[in-house]
Amino acid sequence: LGLALYAGSLCAVSGATFVYHDYCVIGAGPAGLQAAYFLQQAGRDYIVFERSHAPGSFFALYPRHRKLISINKQYTGKSNSEFNLRHDWNSLLSHDRRLLFRRYSRDFFPNADTMVRYLEDFASLLKLRVQYNTAIIHVTLEENEQAWNGHYFLLTDQDRKNYKCSSLLVAAGMWVPNVVNFPGSEYVEGYETVSINPEDFAGQTVLILGRGNSAFETAENILGVTNFIHMVSRSRVRLSWATHYVGDLRAINNGLLDTYQLKSLDGLLEGDLEDLAIVKDKKGKLHITLRFYLENRNISAGIDSITLPQDELDNFATRAPYDRVIRCLGWKFDFSIYNRSLRMVPGKGNIKKYPQIKPSYESRGTRGLFVLGTASHSVDFRKSAGGFIHGFRYTTRAVHRLLENRHHGVPWPSTVYPITQLTNSIIKRVNEASGLYQMFSVLADIILLRENATAFEYLEEYPIGVLAELEMQTGRKARNGLFVIIMEYGRNFSGADKDVFYYNRAVGEAQHAWQSNFLHPVIYYYKHLPTEREMRLRPPDWPLPRPDAIHHIVEDFLTDWTAPNAHILPLRRFLENCLSTDLRSFFAESCFLFAFTHQKLPPFCQQGYVRMQGLVGSQELRHHAVQAGLLQDYTHTDFSGDRPPDSHDGSQEQLMRDHAIPVHPLQHLVNAKDE
């Protein structure tokens, strides 16, 4: 029957008329709009399909109690826009300064209605090509050797209109409620429909199934009016400040933990929900029992004929009947619209609610199909921020850059610098880059060294999961070694059972930087690009394979890694050791002296002084250099000649012919040179 239906669908498709676009995007939520922005900026042929009449339809309903848990920090003390995005978890990336979320709300935790308005403005002000009221109900493939990926994607909407595209970007989010079926589950109310009026719960006893932010958000709303609230889940509570994962329980919703631990009737229980059963008595009260008590029993016969746990264990925790049971178990991906030919299958274990994708965000089953936004979170689930706006705005940009290289021959954006700027480039990025900061251990800056380490090429925010494919994915060459810069937490600092407030939790000395606990930059050095095998066999919980050298920049309380001694000096020495070169900057006088005492000049002198581009001296700079012991003090010397000593045109000749300079060990070399 399945083969017959599939064949029938192919026949129907073969006779249909299709509207073609290079790129089709399913969903006009934050990820879909972000993808549309990058496609539009690049001048690509694309269309976004949105089932609702406006973008961001998920936020029109969720969260039910309307308070977002994504922070909207108005002030950081800095004007650097890239740095400020580290603390703006709601804005999408664009060139339009009007589309910063802080211009829409001053609330630290904004209202969801504001997000809906923001997304509407983002789509309209940027004139993104979104086709509203279009629900894609079926997606299949059409094999074609001339297509970009060897096939076209064929889409059908609710009105049986057909579309064809070369690349499919799925940004439909996670909106299908997770439902657990057990005896009596028909008495359970869903988070998506339960009342949000606290008065409807006055004087009631409530059981909540689940332990995520939606469960605690629901509890927080009715905490002051219920008799008591119990919460059941198979796993223990995970606090975001302990796990450093923003999807775990946030402090704004954890009032129930107070009332539980401070003996105010509410409580948390652990148990497998599939083992539960609910029995309703004649008064409408809901009794919790276990599934095995109901084996070979007829529930409709009445509660009196059913054995309850308290009949055998009189202090059974949930022996009190409940007035309401609410399901708050989150959402899962909608696989129903994808034909079997696309091989869109769920992940395994704790990521089974997500589709299987590669670290490049491309489907494991179908080339050219990319998953964006919340549904792509399987790549970094419970590790980083890829399931949230402040994370997937950067992964969406990364996917766009991969597509630009694959289909249009546009290499990954990069900048080439002389090697003398290596330390400065790293320090600048780790202090202001928002993509590295938000997508820690997932996105990395890549430094590709040129031959003889005279220059380097800087690539920003590349997915480290496909590091072995860097040359193919970016169009850049890594023939002479590379540095990988990422942000990491300490190896043993994050976890549901971790005490993150213990004494001496912070490291302050550079020599102990490798023991840093809080988020800090880590630099990996590889003489050769890691292979796919090395990536597969990397140590457990390591984001990358073992490098040839590694350097941790010591954590900083202010996340400001600009301290000359604690941060910059150790980094420079690490880079110098890796490259066997001197990365210091020098005054012209020092380069002049090096020219007569060293067989090889430092890169700064080679690329600056020798090309008449050294640091230009001044009286103030020279005075500072003398005080620091960097230069000899010649200010009291009686110079002769036609030019004053501070004149820089011909300064080298002046120094060489002026014999009034006090005798210096190098003077004999200078005289010998003159002769």
From TrEMBL:
Give the protein's function. Probable flavoprotein which may function in endoplasmic reticulum associated degradation (ERAD). May bind non-native proteins in the endoplasmic reticulum and target them to the ubiquitination machinery for subsequent degradation.
Which co-factors does it depend on?
Answer: FAD
Give the UniProt keywords, A-Z: Endoplasmic reticulum, FAD, Flavoprotein, Glycoprotein, Oxidoreductase, Signal
Question: Assembly state and interactors?
Answer: Interacts with SEL1L. May interact with OS9 and DNAJC10. Interacts with TXNDC16.
- This chain belongs to which protein, by name? FAD-dependent oxidoreductase domain-containing protein 2
- What is the organism of origin for this protein? Callaeas wilsoni (North Island kokako)
One of the protein's GO biological processes: ERAD pathway
Looking at the keywords, is Ion transport present?
no
Q: Which PANTHER family match?
A: FAD-DEPENDENT OXIDOREDUCTASE DOMAIN-CONTAINING PROTEIN 2 (PTHR43539:SF23), FLAVIN-BINDING MONOOXYGENASE-LIKE PROTEIN (AFU_ORTHOLOGUE AFUA_4G09220) (PTHR43539)
**An annotated GO cellular component:** endoplasmic reticulum lumen
Q: Name one GO molecular function term.
A: flavin adenine dinucleotide binding
What family is reported?
Belongs to the FOXRED2 family.
Provide the coiled-coil residue spans: none
